[in-house]
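Q: C-alpha cells for this one, please.
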Amino acid sequence: MENGNRICALFGIRYPIVSGGMVWCSGWRLAAAVSEAGGLGLIGSGSMTPELLREHIRRCRAATAKPFGVNVPQMYRYTDQIMEVIIEERVPVVFTSAGSPKRWTARLHEAGCKVAHVVSSSAFARKSEEAGVDAVVAEGFEAGGHNGREETSTMVLVPHVRAAVSLPLLAAGGIATGRSMLAAFALGAEGVQIGTRFALTEESSASEAFKRRCTSLCEGDTILALKKLSPTRLVRNEFCRAVEEAEARGATAGELSELLGRGRSKRGIFDGELTEGELEIGQVASLLRDLPPAGEVVRNLVSEFDAASRRLAEL
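A: Here is the predicted structure, written as C-alpha cells:
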C-alpha cells in the first residue's frame, strides 16, 4: 500500500481503512478492534444517548491507544448533547453526516478534532470543502442504512467528487474486499469507509440473528426504500414489503413515518426481530458468508489490495 497516503497522515493511522459508524453495530469493541489493526474505528453515536456514548468513548480509549473516532448523524435528536460529549472527551476524529457541514466543523476544529463529512453528490462535496472539513466521504447508494436521494452509485460518484474538490477523499458504498478498495483508488479515492463488512464481524454489536440473516442474502435481497422520509437500504422482509406497498399506493411522508414508528431499527438490528424489524445493510452483503474478527477483515483488505495491485501491474 502506497506510502504518503493523505488519509493515513490526516488521521494518524497505518491503513486508509475506516469502519463505518453504524447504528446498533458500531460500539467500542468494533471501533477498538479496527483501530488496533491499523485502521480507524468509528463509534456510531446515532443509536446512543449522550451518556452511553461517553461510556463507549472511555471504553474504546481503554482498549486501544490508537486513534479512533465517532460518527454523528446530524438529524439525530441528541446531536447537540452528543457533540458536547465528544468535545469534552477530546475525541480526535469526527465523521458527520445527514446535515450541513457548516453547523459543527468550526467548533470541532476549535476542540482539536479532525472532521470528515459524508456526501452523496459533488455539490455537497463542494459545500463541505467551503465549510472547512478535513476530508469527505463519497458514499454511493449501494451503501446500507441512510442514503442520498440522488441514488448515484459509488463508481460514478467517486470520480465526480474527485473532480469537484481537492480534499482527501474516502469512498464508501459497496466496498468489502481489497479488490473493491483498489477499484475505488483507481477512481480517485485515497481511502475507504466500510460499513457492511464490519457490521458482519465478531465485534459488531448487532444481534447474531441479524448477522446470520445478512450472510444468507442473495443479489436483489435489499432495496432502497422510505424515499419520502430518508432513503434507507433495507433487507426485504415483511416490514420492507409493507413499506413498498405503501409507497406504491402513494403514501405520504407522514403515513410512512407512522408505519416506521420508533425503535424499529433497534428491533431489527440489535434485537434480531427479522420479520417486522428494520434491517439495514448494504448491497455487498450478498457477497459475504462469514463473521470474522474485525482485525482479520483489515488484514485481508490490505493483503487483497496488494495482491490485486500486483496482478494489475503484471497486466
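A few notes: The longest strand covers residues 68-73. The mean pLDDT is 96.
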